[in-house]
Hints:
By secondary structure, this protein is an alpha/beta fold. Helix content is 40%, strand content 20%. The chain has eleven helices and twelve strands. Helix 1 packs across helix 9 (294-307), helix 5 packs across helix 6 and helix 7 packs parallel to helix 8 (242-255).
Amino acid sequence: MNTYKIAVIGGDGTGPEVAAEGIKVLKAAESKFGFKCELVDYDIGGDRYLKTGEILPDSIVEELKTFDSIYLGAIGHPDVKPGVLEKGILLRLRFELDQYVNLRPVILFDKRFCPLKDKTEKDIDYVVVRENTEGLYCGAGGFTKKDTENEVAIQESINTYKGVQRCVHFAFQQARKRNKQKTVTLCGKTNVLTFAFDLWERTFHKVAKNYPDIKTDYAHVDATCMWMVKNPEWFDVIVTDNMFGDIITDLGAITQGGMGIAAGGNINPDGVSMFEPIGGSAPKYTGKNVINPMAAICALSMMVDILGEEKAAKAIEASVRKVVGEKLDTLSAGKMGYSTTQVGDLVVENL
Ligand code: IPM
Ligand code: MN
């Protein structure tokens, strides 16, 4: 039997609650589809930091490198200054584990939850391949004359040929795997960012030559936002840099029904990947058993897929689709008609 070693980081706020529902579904999928996961819990997050001053010990980073995958609940704590945990945990892991793709499916499971007029399930079904280790997220830059009238702040976007090409390759492979419109759209800003997106555009067309079966398209990031609202059915795979990817995937998430359903995978195809709901730690709902765990369950199904248990992943996704379509009143915390744990139970029952 295939056995996988999974590190579980419940993290902050509602993170542990939603991760528990994902694990519940994982357990059910294991017995049904004949694989096994050994889970190891890691206590990382805002509470640990406030108690011990430790954000993410180097020893844990080294340990995490030995797992087959990492399953993450949420990172972010109201009593910790913004940026500390995000940079110290989430971004550090993405960088040190070289998870160079952030894969964000934008899939509408039920048209009742779509805020766009006249759009249905068949119109919203694409993935964003966001570069995950470069761009504005590198932390390159700094201040001079800080806190004076002459202050200068510089934040640079780092784009490397190697970084861009591996991400673009992944996007073309996704288009093949999805086998839908077989189109990859580069989302950039070639009319203004004439260095960074010149590199992206040249690399995109060079890589495309390896995929003659896949069509290419291009849209500026501002126009991409417009089309994601007006004609989302145009998209199959969108590839873009880290910052644009961050922004457009929140827009994508709301078109699929919101943070309650949006999942992401931080992927290193040759290493350890990490899967997470993208909604954050939702402090005001913590401990109330009202948060929607579907995003975490979708993240779990992505993880199971990347581990190689594709049948199980498809079954989990089908169950989510069914429960979302037939049971839930909304996808929002507290108004679903079911508690967090009940939603997890429903996904298990329908598996
Ligand atoms: C995301 C989040 C993170 C990001 C934050 C929490 C650092 O918004 O995963 O999209 O900007 O990448
Ligand atoms: Mn984001």
